[in-house]
Amino acid sequence: MQMIDVEQLPGASTPPPVSVGGREISEAEIAAEMQYHPADSAGSAQLKAARALVVRELLHQRAQMLGLAAQDSEAEAADEAIAELLEAELAVPEPAKDDCRRFYEAHPERFSQPVQLDVRHILLAAPPDDAEARDAQYHLGVKLLAELGEHPERMTELAQRHSDCPSRDDGGSLGRLMPGQTVAELDRALKHLPVGLHDRPLASRYGWHLVVVDHREESRQLPYEEVAEQVRLSLHEQATRRGLRHYLLALESDIGVQGVALDDDSGASLMR
């Protein structure tokens, strides 16, 4: 649920204050919290920050009710009290073995070894806003690819002579790569390249890449026995999120929250 834009309310001049059980959370507190909640807009960050503070205040007040926290607890003591509270009141059952197996079979992409590539390259550097340099380096790349097509054994020599990447000292070798380990533009292209010399320069923000894929190991689902603990933890985290959501909604109803409504992900900051 989004906060209502006060400009849409007839006669409204200030947004409604955010409060929990009668204790107001100030705009200054929300502003200070926003740095921990990056978002695509200031309004979204403000809303996330407000919800995070509401969640902590709900839990702190519940901990006070049970005698786990003093009224004026320091931040560290308050966090310890909240942890003790959740351990006492948030009962999350362990996932059953059959549920773990079904989850593993339903989500093979989550428990797979990614594509792995052994790659060598030559980087011909050219800034993205320098059209003349990029054109010149592209034509040099085409020339070098023709040379490599005829004489692949010259890769080390040509990398040492022409590459602007530190890998030139290793003959252009980038080692074994997995997704996300190189610049995004090259990373996307590598996913689809077969073994061998690619027949045209590949563009990135750094210039042009002449690429040789020496080995390609396709993605494969890992055996269940290797990821059983990871599967169990994934299901346990899901159950914890569900349990925490219901627990927070119950506290919201019992204690009372004004100015902002909790959403399905309001307790996420407690699980980081």
TrEMBL record:
EC number: 5.2.1.8
Keyword Cell wall biogenesis/degradation carried by entry: no
PROSITE patterns: PPIC_PPIASE_2 (PS50198)
Molecular functions per Gene Ontology: peptidyl-prolyl cis-trans isomerase activity
Enzyme class: isomerase
Membrane-crossing residue ranges in chain numbering: none
Reaction(s) the record says it catalyses: [protein]-peptidylproline (omega=180) = [protein]-peptidylproline (omega=0)
Pfam families membership: Rotamase
Domain PpiC: 114-215
Protein keywords: Isomerase, Rotamase
Region (Disordered) residue spans: 1-20
InterPro entries xrefs: PPIase_dom_sf, PPIase_PpiC, PrsA_foldase, Trigger_fact/SurA_dom_sf
Family, as annotated: Belongs to the PpiC/parvulin rotamase family.
PANTHER family, A to Z: PEPTIDYL-PROLYL CIS-TRANS ISOMERASE HP_0175-RELATED (PTHR47245:SF2), PEPTIDYLPROLYL ISOMERASE (PTHR47245)
Listed name of the protein: peptidylprolyl isomerase
Lineage: Bacteria, Pseudomonadati, Pseudomonadota, Gammaproteobacteria, Oceanospirillales
